[in-house]
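User: Before I run my own analysis I want an independent prediction to cross-check against. Here's the chain; please return only the structure tokens and, at the end, one sentence I can use as a sanity check.
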Amino acid sequence: MRERTFGNPSIFIIAVLFGLAHGFSVKNSLEFRFEFYPFICTFVSGYVLSWITVESKSILLPVLSHNMINFIQTLMRMIK
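Assistant: Structure tokens:
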């Protein structure tokens, strides 16, 4: 029988850390800010990418997916 990985606590922890890393920012005046929207977006993508890592037992697909997400976001900002 196959083990379920969707509720794996390590996936949740990595997603929270990924969200926090993208939710906090430092301004020029060394003021720390936390923005909720980037946290939620990167938490969800971090959860999905972590789950893909555990399921595929490889980091290659999540790294490529992360780079593709970054490329598409950058392209959308350039077109806008």
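Sanity check: The first helix runs from residue 9 to 23.
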